[in-house]
Write a structure and sequence with these properties.
By secondary structure, the protein is of the alpha/beta class. The protein is 50% helix and 11% strand. Helix 27 crosses helix 29. The two termini are 27 Å apart.
């Protein structure tokens, strides 16, 4: 039954996915394209040509374009007579096309006069196919000339020809300057409802309403439509969405109505004009009925479909989803039907969104820049796909496992059978009272056979380490007096110099370990262990395949203040969610405290690596590569101290993230299966996907710098630089929302946290994003980071110092807030893509704001912990232990 559901659920969701594709692409029946339209706006520029730089097509190319339109239109409308464009009337005559001849009027008076002189020369030639003359196009709208200047030019041309003379402006310009109508033979209005943000279903009625308003304002003048059109691609303008389907719908509807009402019109335009990107942004390139390669962009008579090839795209999205599910469903026998359904739903949704994004991006004209950006976006999109899949997988396994397959074994073993344990406590410059407290807790262990080795590593001040040595001797005497120990159970070593940081100290301890010790256990110098720690967990080693037994890191000072309560909540997510799910596939991260390992395995794999600052995780990976097992129990057996300041909190996480990257780089061949080991696919999955969010923070930092650079360009050149595609800009918003919802849900369900605690944990985690990003890149490019000891019992910093501790984050926060404000000052700030981009900038600023807030909270040690609430000790549930 379970196997059947594993097949049926994905098939049902695949069917739902295809049904959604079909629903989005329901064909709509539209009026057919006229057999022969009245006119096209005609500019024969090819992709690499630009009239602003006087790079014009050849006469042969112009003739080819006219040949393409022959029989499709009665007339064409031109915009300039400069260069070869002045030959268009003669060339059009050979193809049976009338010409509405246009002369360009711009801000350069001298150029305007030359253009008019050229127009006059052409009008003196015997061209019978010139049916109208346009003097200027939107010259008043652009404020290139005064109304009086344009009227003077119109009067001049009208005196020289009997052909009707007019000019073209949007409908509202005519209503604003009615005196202009007295100097034309006809009024040409532009009806481009996209620019006015009119939704497609209202666009035709809106256009003819404006046409009617102009006709009523000038009843004695012929009013024609000089331009009417809709873009096939580009930015959404309020309710107006550019798309090939909407272009088809609008033009077929408006042309049918214009033909019915007998209105003269010119379709905007015959061919896509790539050069218009410089003056109108990317939207300017997509108004043609034909694309830049002279291929028709839409069907003229068939029903209109939003994405004509949606069947192929739907199949591709289903195929990608199936491949992802095959990966996610591997080794998922204990996942319930709800969990599998959730994974299938997320996978199909993400795959469909990815396919749509790629499709939309490839519909634009590709330049070297957009190609490079597209490749980068594709790489980033694959990363997002993998990241979301990994996050969804952890979500599903945390909530919907039917049973935990690797329950921690509870065994009652006679004391005589228990092996000897050597406890190693590395220390560097630790406060003596702190370490003495740790040793007292170890002395209280109810385990029959153990030793404690304290290795003080390079502490310079004898006043720091000598009290600890004296206390070890005192403990030995006390134990001997009680008859609980014979010999030196507590041994103290002060070693200076000693290379290799913490790993060097642990390797030294290993060399000094009692030969009879079978198990090595490690705790940090600030940990107070429970008396039954060893007694409860050592029996797990009676399974000969188990090499590591790990209890979580937990903390005892979370009630001290609000900052530490936040940190405690943040730590808990990894130890009560991530480690629990990793344990299911024998893929836990060995962390250096509260860990136990077989001595012979430790020696066989080469002991602790002194090149690595996260020697614990690296050792655990080597143990897995050798084919051994590890067990994790999510129950508190020891508690340490939380960093006192945000700066120390960041340094600790920097070390962890940096070390993780170095471990992945060092073991890349093993993790990718390029070097033979005994790693399972599940272990590879967890080690790669588990640290993927840290790499994601690193790439997010690159995205942030790119976003700021793009924002600067948008502000500096608002006429030409538009926001990134809205669908692409929405990705970081969706990703941020998904991760936040996942965090809240899992904290509430798995950590048993309140909403306040879940929020505090999320805030503390966000505050570390920039630190993790920097650490990730440092790990990629540098292998020489020194070991940083997290200070204990440090004095709290002042507010100013707290701000300085987050100065990088503060600078980036200011940059993002300023960027969001600046883009909203653009003239097109009313457009939804500008507002979405501002929202993206604000969301990207959230982690930096969180860092400043958490740093300030850390500087207020009297801020009570009950503002957050302190999490209880971790207790293993019946399902996992």
């Amino acid at each position: 039954m379970h196997r059947t559901l594993s097949i049926v659920i994905p098939l049902l969701i695949a069917g739902l996915s295809v049904a959604l594709w079909a629903m989005m692409n329901q064909p709509s029946v539209e009026p057919p394209w006229p057999t022969r339209i009245q006119g096209y706006s005609f500019q024969p520029m090819r992709a690499d040509q630009d009239p602003q730089r006087r790079i014009y097509p050849s006469l042969t190319e112009i003739d080819q374009d006219l040949s393409l339109l022959q029989g499709e239109a009665h007339a064409i409308r031109t915009y300039s007579v400069d260069g070869p464009l002045g030959q268009i009337p003669a060339l059009a005559s050979a193809h049976g096309l009338n010409v509405s001849l246009g002369a360009w009027i711009g801000p350069d008076a001298k150029a305007n006069q030359a253009e008019l002189e050229r127009l006059i020369d052409i009008l003196r030639e015997p061209h019978r196919n010139i049916v109208r003359v346009f003097v200027g196009n939107e010259a008043i709208l652009r404020e290139d000339v005064e109304v009086s200047e344009l009227m003077r030019d119109l009067d001049r041309i009208r005196r020289l020809t009997e052909i009707p003379v007019g000019t073209a402006e949007p409908w509202h310009v005519w209503l604003k300057y009615p005196e202009l109508a007295e100097h034309v033979d006809f009024i040409a209005i532009h009806l481009l409802p996209y620019w006015e943000g009119v939704p497609i279903d209202q666009a035709v009625d809106f256009s003819f309403k404006k046409l009617d308003e102009v006709q009523q304002a000038f009843p004695d003048k012929e009013v024609i439509i000089g331009e009417v059109g809709w873009p096939s691609h580009g930015r959404r303008n309020r309710g107006a969405e550019p798309s090939q389907a909407n272009q088809t719908r609008f033009l077929r509807r408006v042309l049918a109505r214009a033909e019915q009402e007998g209105t003269v019109y010119y379709v905007m335009e015959a061919f896509d004009q790539l050069w218009k990107t410089k003056i109108e942004g990317s939207i300017g390139s997509y108004w043609g009925v034909y694309d830049a390669e002279r291929e028709p962009k839409f069907a003229l008579t068939q029903p209109v479909v939003r994405i004509p090839n949606w069947h192929e795209l739907a199949a591709l999205s289903v195929g990608i989803a199936v491949l992802l599910l095959l990966l996610l469903y591997r080794d998922s026998s204990s996942l319930s039907s709800s969990g599998k359904g959730f994974l299938a739903l997320i996978t199909y949704a993400v795959s469909t969104a990815a396919v749509l994004l790629v499709y939309q991006y490839t519909q634009q004209y590709m330049t070297p820049l957009t190609t490079v950006v597209g490749v980068l976006l594709l790489i980033g999109g694959i990363g997002v796909l993998i990241l979301l899949s990994a996050e969804a997988h952890e979500w599903a396994e945390s909530l919907w496992l039917k049973r935990w397959r690797r329950a921690f074994p509870r065994r009652e073993v006679p004391d005589a059978w228990l092996p000897m344990v050597s406890l190693h406590v590395p220390a560097y410059n630790e406060p003596p009272a702190l370490l003495i407290e740790t040793l007292d807790a170890l002395a209280a262990l109810n385990y029959p056979r153990f030793e404690v080795l304290v290795i003080d590593n390079n502490t310079k001040d004898p006043a720091v380490w000598e009290p600890v040595r004296a206390h070890c001797a005192q403990l030995n005497r006390r134990l001997m007096l009680k008859g609980q120990s014979h010999g030196q159970r507590f041994r103290f070593f002060h070693v200076s110099p000693l290379a290799g940081f913490k790993a060097g100290a642990l390797n030294f301890a290993l060399r000094e370990t009692d030969p009879k010790a079978a198990i090595v256990a490690v705790i940090d110098a600030d940990y107070l262990v429970s008396p039954n720690w060893l007694h409860d967990l050592i029996p797990a080693f009676f399974d000969d395949e188990v090499a590591i037994v790990q209890a979580p890191q937990d903390y005892r000072d979370g009630e001290e203040n609000a900052f530490k309560a936040m940190c405690l909540a943040e730590y808990r997510g990894f130890f009560h969610i991530g480690m629990v799910t990793r344990n299911e596939r024998n893929a836990i991260i060995q962390h250096g405290t509260m860990t136990m390992i077989r001595r012979n395995v430790l020696e066989a794999v080469g002991s602790w690596s002194e090149w690595c600052i996260t020697e614990d995780a690296e050792l655990g990976l080597r143990v897995f590569e050798a084919g051994h097992k590890a067990l994790y129990i999510p129950a508190t057996y020891g508690r340490g101290l939380i960093p006192d300041t945000f700066a120390d909190f960041k340094k600790q996480r920097f070390r962890w993230a940096y070390g993780a990257v170095r471990v992945l780089i060092a073991h890349r061949r093993e993790l990718l299966g390029l070097r033979r080991t005994r790693l399972t696919s599940g272990q590879r999955w967890h080690f790669l996907s588990g640290w993927l969010p840290w790499f994601a923070d690193g790439f997010n930092l690159l995205f942030n710098f790119a976003a700021l650079a793009w924002t600067i360009a948008m502000v500096a050149a608002p006429e030409t630089i538009t926001p990134p595609y809205m669908s692409i800009a929405l990705v970081p918003l969706v990703l941020f929302g998904f991760k936040m919802i996942k965090s809240f849900v899992l904290y509430r369900r798995r950590v048993d946290a309140t909403w306040r605690q879940a929020f505090a944990a999320g805030l503390a985690g966000l505050a570390l994003s920039h630190t993790i990003a920097r650490a990730s890149w440092a790990g990629v490019f540098s292998g020489k980071l020194g070991f940083f000891r997290t200070p204990k019992l440090a004095t709290s910093v002042a507010l100013f110092r707290a701000l300085m501790d987050a100065r990088e984050e503060a600078l980036l926060l200011f940059a993002f807030l300023l960027g969001a404000f600046a883009v909203l000052q653009r003239p097109d700030a009313y457009m939804i893509d500008v507002r979405v981009w501002a929202a993206v900038l604000l969301v990207q600023a959230v982690p930096y704001a969180a860092a400043i807030l958490v740093s300030l909270i850390s500087a207020l040690p009297r801020l009570p912990a009950n503002l957050v609430g302190t999490l209880r000790e971790m207790r293993s549930s019946s399902s996992s232990a």
